[in-house]
Amino acid sequence: MTALLEVTDMTKVFGGVRAVDGCSFTVEPHTVTALIGPNGSGKTTLFNMVTGYLGPDSGRVRFAGQDVTGVDAGTLYRRGLSRTFQQARVIPQLSVLENLVAAGGYSWRQLLTTRRVGRADRDRAGQLLEEFRLSHVADLLASELSYGQRKLLEFAAVLMSDPTLVLLDEPTAGVNPVMIDTMERHIRERHEAGITFLIVEHDMSFVMRLCDPVIVLDQGKRIFSGVPSEVQANALVLDAYLGS
Ligand code: ADP
Ligand code: MG
């Protein structure tokens, strides 16, 4: 089986800190793969490099059989590789509906000055709003949403591109238990519909319920990858989390 995503020997140094340090891993198609590790172990930096928000010092990224190292985030998004952020990023000055349409490739100027948005994009946005139970807030500004709703909106916006691979950076951090269940349901549904996920998450029960395999990072290096049942018994992983 050819990996959907192949990260090879990636490194990123900030000042003296080796945030990501010779890290390699693969994401196989049709998996929900978890990327876990203590705070500061380099998870977000890896996401930034894989999704074109940050250039690596060294290393390669292959996505869907092509070398995409250094390709910008917009191009990757259009090719089907998209992501959410640890602190949900939505455009606060636009409505919920406009945020979705904007994610479909319209500039702010087009949205704010004209109504020239294609019917297909409008329909797609409307359908996502219904699926995510956000129709009743479609015309509110994104800044008026709760934190959990913003995370949902950001997830929905990522789906506007009809992605193959979605990277979620802490999808449940800071949201209430009901919203965690909602997030889990949406991930499962989209996974069943064919999307592959790579998820950074601290909630271990969420990871154990949803993800297989699990990759563990510590100090910028992959220290484990395997099935979830083996993670918690692995001595290296325990050491990384307990700080010994
Ligand atoms: P994680 O997401 O696993 O918590 P990060 O990738 O955010 O880890 O951070 C890894 C390390 O790199 C940390 O020591 C962090 O302080 C450092 N770091 C991350 N981004 C920057 C940056 N833009 N400038 C300087 N240091 C950074
Ligand atoms: Mg992070």
Q: What does this entry look like structurally?
A:
With 244 residues, the chain is an alpha/beta fold. It folds into two domains: 5-88 and 163-242, P-loop containing nucleotide triphosphate hydrolases (Rossmann fold, 3-Layer(aba) Sandwich); 91-144, no CATH class. The protein contains ten helices and ten strands. It has a six-stranded mixed beta sheet with strand order 6-7-8-3-9-10, with helices on both faces. Strands 2-1-4-5 form a four-stranded antiparallel beta sheet, covered by helices on one side. The protein is globular, with a radius of gyration of 18 Å. Adenosine-5'-diphosphate is lined by residues 14, 17, 19, 37, 39-45. Magnesium ion (MG) binds at residues 43-44, 86.
Brief summary:
This protein is an alpha/beta fold.
The ligands bound in this entry are:
adenosine-5'-diphosphate, magnesium ion
Indicate the CATH class of the largest domain: Alpha Beta
| Count of DSSP H/I helices | 10
- The CATH architecture of the largest domain can be named as 3-Layer(aba) Sandwich
- Walk across the major sheet and give the strand order: 6-7-8-3-9-10
Strand count, sense and closure of the main sheet?
6 strands, mixed
Mind sketching the topology for me?
Elements: E1 5-14, E2 17-27, E3 32-36, H1 43-50, E4 58-63, E5 66-67, H2 73-79, E6 81-83, H3 96-103, H4 108-113, H5 119-131, H6 147-159, E7 165-169, H7 177-192, E8 196-200, H8 204-210, E9 214-218, E10 221-226, H9 228-231, H10 235-242
Parallel strand pairs: 3-8, 3-9, 6-7, 7-8
Antiparallel strand pairs: 1-2, 1-4, 4-5, 9-10
Helix pairs in contact: 3-6
This protein binds adenosine-5'-diphosphate (ADP) and magnesium ion (MG).
